[in-house]
Structure formats: structure tokens, C-alpha cells
Amino acid sequence: MNAKLSQHMTILGLCAVGFYGFMAATGRLGLDVMPQFMVSAMIFMLSGRFMKKAAREVRDEDDEKKPKVAEEDWSFFANLVNWMGALVVVGVMAILLMKPVGLSIVDALQASIEHEQFSAHVVP
After folding, report:
1. Whole-angstrom Cα distance, residue 87 to residue 73?
2. CA-CA distances (angstroms) from residue 43 to 13, 46, 74, 96?
3. What is the rounded distance in angstroms from the CA atom of residue 55 to the CA atom of residue 52?
4. At CA 87, angle to CA 123 and CA 6, rounded to 5?
5. Beta-carbon neighbour count of residue 42 at 10 Å?
6. 93-105 pLDDT per residue, tens
7. Is 66 or 112 the better-scoring residue by pLDDT?
8. Can you tell me the distance from the alpha carbon of 50 to that of 105, in angstroms, rounded to the nearest whole number?
9. How far apart are CA 92 and CA 88, in angstroms?
10. Residue 57: predicted pLDDT
11. Backbone phi and psi for residue 121, each to the nearest 5 degrees, phi listed first
12. What DSSP string describes 20-69?
């Protein structure tokens, strides 16, 4: 198994999260289908982790007698990218959930920048 393939799968999952967030922000994708897309993106990210673990086990079996070479801490970088992606997704979803009903995201951001107070007439 190729260890870089796991990194590609993780990056593909993050790109999928970004794409789904962009589609939701532009209004082309409804929020009712967002959980299914988030689950598919999480499957991509987790499959990268599982593939990396399997590649490490195969490599350990093959290289038991070979001397160990110092490597970068890719698990730290992968975890950092995963957590940053998760925080971005949670932040975007929080902004979408906190904005008043019937107000576009652009109008809500402009009102936030201008420090205007607004209230929602309908609470779902």
C-alpha cells in the first residue's frame, strides 16, 4: 500500500468538505442533504487514516531488519489539517444556523460589520 495515498484521501476529504460548504453557501445545495455529504467527506478522511495505518503495518513487517530512518511527523500534520478542516466546517455551519431566517449571508455579514442589531421574526 502506498502511504501517500492515505494523505491524498485525507486531502480529498477536506476538498470535498470545502466544495460542499461552497455549494451550501452559494445556495445551490440545500442544507437538507448536507449531512449525507458530510458523511461521505468523513469517510474519505477516515479511509486515509485507515490506509496509513495498514501501510505502516505492512512496512513494519517488511522492514523489521532494516535500520530506521528519521521521518517527519506526518501524523501530526494530518491531524492538524483534519482538525482545522473540522473547525472550518463547524464554523461555517454555526454561521449558517445563527443567521436569521430570510436574511442572506451577505446581508448578515454586512450587518455584522456595521454592528447593526437585528432579530429574527421566526424561530425554527
Report:
1. 22
2. 8, 5, 20, 23
3. 5
4. 135
5. 16
6. 887 888 878 888 8
7. 112
8. 37
9. 6
10. 79
11. -85, -30
12. HHHHHHHTSS-TTSHHHHHHHHHHHHHHHHHHHHHHHHHHHHHTSSSPP-
What does the longest C-alpha to C-alpha distance in the chain come to?
A: 70
Under the banding of pLDDT at 50, 70 and 90, the label for residue 117 is low
Residue 80 in grid coordinates: 492538524
DSSP string covering 78-99: HHHHHHHHHHHHHHHHHHHHHS
At 1, is the pLDDT very low, low, confident or very high (cuts 50, 70, 90)? very low
Quote the pTM value.
Answer: 0.40
Q: Cβ distance 19 to 72 under 8 Å?
A: no
Q: Report pLDDT for 53.
A: 78
Phi-psi category of 27—alpha, beta or left, where left has phi over 0 and alpha has psi -120 to 50? left
